[in-house]
Amino acid sequence: MLLAIGVWGCHHRPGHEAARIGDEIVVCGRYFHTGGAPVVLWTDPGGYDAYRMEKRFVPWERAAWTPPVATPGANSGSGDAPGPSTPTRYNIRFAGSLGRPECPISADEFERIRGGGWDLSTLQRIVDQFVMHYDVCGTSRQCFRVLHDMRGLSVHFMLDIDGTIYQTLDLKERAWHATTSNDRSIGIEIANIGAYSDREVGPLKNWYAKDANGKTIITIPQVMGNGGVRTPNFIGRPFADEPVEAEIQGQKQVMYDLTPEQYESLSKLTETLCRIFPNMPRDYPRDATGDLITGKLSDEQLAGYRGLLGHYHIQSNKIDPGPAFQWQRVVGERGKGRRE
After folding, report:
1. Domain CATH for 320
2. CA-to-CA separations, 295 to 57, 276, 313, in angstroms, rounded
């Protein structure tokens, strides 16, 4: 396997700290290398901790969770909108389907899981989907603020524009990101302002501009500062200078691509996850001719599907990760991907 060298080593002195090298993810409490992708865990300085119940981005005296109260005229950006309906933003995989015929774990297994956590072999048996989202927030810091503080949701990973991967929960947890696939999936929110129709390109104009050489750069709005991007003075550039236009869910959408740094880290993370979880092939939904399916899978298709998929493959009202997303690049088919 990919267990980090040194974590279980037998030659360290008592009290000797075995430091991480910074590319590990956590699965059932165990560290696994990603082949060099920069990873910040929820336990690291600057990490985002989805186990915490209080709000992250408000003054401490207002951070404690309280039951939501409807506020007339409130909106998601006001800070006064109703908050999460529960203090936790995750739960135990298959807790809601225990006892149903389709549930892949027994009552005895569930009692062991809820009492002492998942063991790796059991988790490997049931995790078989990796769901791609774009966050429509632009940066991972803003994504965590919206997901955790405001919406009461969660996701295992966030991928910032500089390629930094933030893990917010152990993969044994059931994160709340993809409705019917939550029990069996791992989720990632990719920092990108999203895709829009021709009538809704305002956000794209606010987030992208041309530099002195005519090349497209990401322009984080001034009100967000540097957006929490970890790399000092990072200048983000989409993979291509022009936006990509294509149909998702049968409707034309326009979107700027991810950054090269994001593709590099996402490819490494994807390969790592598909090695750890043998029931999750490194592939995406394809039609009979081998081309990407660009709409929701039928309930029957989704129930039997294993591998990578987009949010739009699960829900008909979603279009992420959008038309620019290079599935071939993520699964390692570089010779077949567009914009190579």
Report:
1. 3.40.80.10
2. 35, 28, 6
